[in-house]
Write a structure and sequence with these properties.
Elements (H helix, E strand, L loop, with lengths): L2 E7 L2 E7 L5 H8 L18 E4 L2 E4 L12 E3 L12 H8 L9 H14 L5 H8 L10 H11 L4
Parallel strand pairs: 1-5
Antiparallel strand pairs: 1-2, 3-4, 3-5
Length: 155
């Protein structure tokens, strides 16, 4: 049996039918064609499926779609405005924090949540915030530098 879910996706209202067992990741990718949350481990370990649910990072593979009902969901597609990249996206490009790109959407969303909550995090706080997102390409230093550049930290 399917239920109607209503929520805001990247600033636009959405109404969709979902089974009680659908994850938010399934709903986003398979029904709404939002491809930035990646299917990685399906266990909440890699962070490739990270989205913001009411401005908090969550692993979409672990969250039932029903949890999004009457809430706000943001994916990487929701950050650009009028064709312009968000400052965090720009910093990732500038600092070489984007390589294969698989982890990038989740990393950027975690960074956004961190900087929205704490505009001047320490390097330790940045590393802790991104610790749930695995990257196989960058070694994390460029990611930390990109986030730090927005926080006014020089590292």
């Amino acid at each position: 049996m399917k239920h109607v879910l209503s929520f805001t996706l990247n600033g636009s209202p959405v109404e969709v039918l979902a089974k009680p067992t659908d994850t938010l990741l399934d709903l986003l990718r398979e029904q709404l064609d939002v491809m930035s949350p990646k299917r990685g481990c399906d266990e909440g370990d890699c962070g490739a499926c990270t989205v913001l649910l009411d401005d908090k990072p969550v692993n979409a593979c672990l969250i039932l779609a029903a949890k999004a009902h009457r809430k706000k969901v943001i994916t990487i597609e929701g950050l650009e405005r009028n064709g312009e990249l968000h400052a965090i996206q720009e910093a990732f490009v500038q600092y070489g924090a984007v390589q294969c790109g698989f982890c990038t959407p989740g990393m950027i969303l975690v960074a956004k949540a961190l900087l929205d909550q704490n505009p001047h995090p320490t390097e330790e706080q940045i590393r802790k915030a991104i610790s749930g997102n695995l990257c196989r390409c960058t070694g994390y230093q460029q990611i930390v530098e990109a986030i730090s550049s927005l926080a006014g930290i020089h590292g």
